[in-house]
Amino acid sequence: MAKDKKKRKEIKQKLLHKYRLVILNESTFEEKISFKLSRLNVFVTGTLFIIVLIGLTTLIIAFTPLREYIPGYSSTRLKRQATELTYKTDSLVTVLNYTNRYLDNVRLVLRGDVENNQVNRDSLFEKYKLDPSSVDLTPIREDLLLREEVELEDKYNLFERNIENVGTLLFAPLNGSISQNFDPQNKHYAVDVVAPKDTPVKSIADGTVLFAEWTSETGYVIIIKHQDDLTSVYKHNGSLSKSQGELVQAGEVIASIGNTGELTTGPHLHFELWKKGRPVNPLNYIDFK
After folding, report:
1. 151 Cβ partners below 8 Å, 6+ apart?
2. Is-contact 224 243, C-beta < 8 A?
3. What is the 3-state secondary structure (H, E, C) of the chain?
4. With bands split at pLDDT 50, 70 and 90, how would you rate the model's confidence at 75?
5. What pTM does this model have?
6. How far are the Cα atoms of 62, 94, 96, 97, 102 from residue 90, in angstroms, in the given order?
7. What gap in Å lies between CA 247 and CA 202, rounded to an integer?
8. HSE, side-chain direction, 13 A CA sphere, residue 95
9. What pLDDT score was predicted for residue 74?
10. Burial of 252 by CB count in 10 Å (0-12 exposed, 13-18 middle, 19+ buried)?
11. 234 CB contacts (<8 Å, ≥6 apart)?
12. What's the longest Cα–Cα distance across the chain?
């Protein structure tokens, strides 16, 4: 026990024993600087210096561009490029999926595989329908006289009459002002009708929805196939209320006015009318006022 105490005392004396560090001029042996040191002071000072040096090195590596020079550490520029490429890839995949769905719908239409789904009965005009059996359709005397007069005139009409589209009644998809007319020379095969946002867009006639999806350039688009090889196209809608394959009735709400897609500058309806695969001027068939 006495030996242990003596040994600890010797170690303590060695640690606390004072030494003097003197810096002399080699030529004149003049004393310039002198320090009083002990082994304990040297150990503590050296440890603190190493800790501070390690901390400063860690901070410099973590918060300065110097970390990019460490092998295996990715640079900020590469991370930014990787993030941008990830976003672009996701957008391209989304556009590709929409394009594939569009092509699948077109193939179904061309093959005639469109399903004849039941007519959607949520039309705004459903409650206004009348039972034909409750309506008296017997013509009055004035109506009979007018019919006879018209038949007599048509019987002796020597000029050729254009009977195309007889019996086809087209409803206006909405009422509004025309901001851009039908201009096939500039490849604008439609009329742009300006109307307040969320204004209901209606079907111009009975038909089947061929396409009802989102596209990057024209936003929400719905295409309807009608009788007599007539097709109507509605673009830049704010929302769609019908889906592909559904049957719609004339005057039934199919969408709402919006400002979707890249090729638009304000809420409006881009309306196209195609007859036997060729674009026609909608103003020749529909009054938008």
Report:
1. none
2. no
3. CHHHHHHHHHHHHHHHCEEEEEEECCCCCCEEEEEEEEHHHHHHHHHHHHHHHHHHHHHHHHHCHHHHHCCCCCCHHHHHHHHHHHHHHHHHHHHHHHHHHHHHHHHHHHHCCCCCCCCCCCCCCHHHCCCHHHCCCCCCHHHHHHHHHHHHHHHCCCCCCCCCCCCCCCCCCCCCEEEECCEHHHCECCEEEECCCCCEEECCCCEEEEEEEEECCCEEEEEEEECCCEEEEEEEEEEECCCCCCEECCCCEEEEEECCCCCCCCCEEEEEEEECCEEECHHHCCCCC
4. low
5. 0.45
6. 31, 6, 10, 11, 19
7. 13
8. 11
9. 63
10. buried
11. 173, 201, 221, 222, 223, 224, 254, 255, 269, 270, 271
12. 147
Residue with tokens 């004393």: 31
- Both tokens assigned to 262: 């890249």
Place of tokens 């025309």: 178
- Whole-angstrom distance, CA of residue 247 vs CA of residue 43: 90
Q: Give the per-residue SS3 of 221-272.
A: EEEEEECCCEEEEEEEEEEECCCCCCEECCCCEEEEEECCCCCCCCCEEEEE
CA atoms within 13 A on the CB side of 279: 13
Q: Which residue has the tokens 């556009």?
A: 95
137-148, pLDDT tens digit by residue? 677 777 778 877
